[in-house]
What we know:
single chain; alpha+beta; 21% strand; disordered N terminus
Amino acid sequence: MTALSSSSSNRSPWRDRFRAPTLEELRRACAGPEGGLLESARDHLLATPGVQEEVAWQGLPWRWTLVYSAPADATRAWAYLVPDPAKPVLAVPITEEMVLAFPMDRLKKHVRDGVLTSRKVAGVYWATWELTSKAQLGEILELVDRKRKFFLPKK
């Protein structure tokens, strides 16, 4: 076996852009505490009515990513979950209109700062967080819940 073929056979399914991995392969590659965070995030995102999950290549640095779409926001992905085996990442695109409507002062500081200091492109804040703990994930998912409520009919 050559060095080239042995290195490609050991390549993480998350890194191999030439072969679309299955969801199960991505889950296996993200083991340990990171895998638990990944599963918790997936469960929460998929619990939102109408949200669908798709594995899609997003280029560097996200590579193979779980992309969530929702009929409530057909203009962009609902969220992105990057199953990086070293550090899973959750990205939640938030529009300027949402930022103005959300009670931002009620969010935890790191979540609020994650939105307000994120890269803003065409009126969309691309807030991203490396997932480090269940508590931190729960605080970020509060933002996802606020996004869901934003699209509910106003009373």
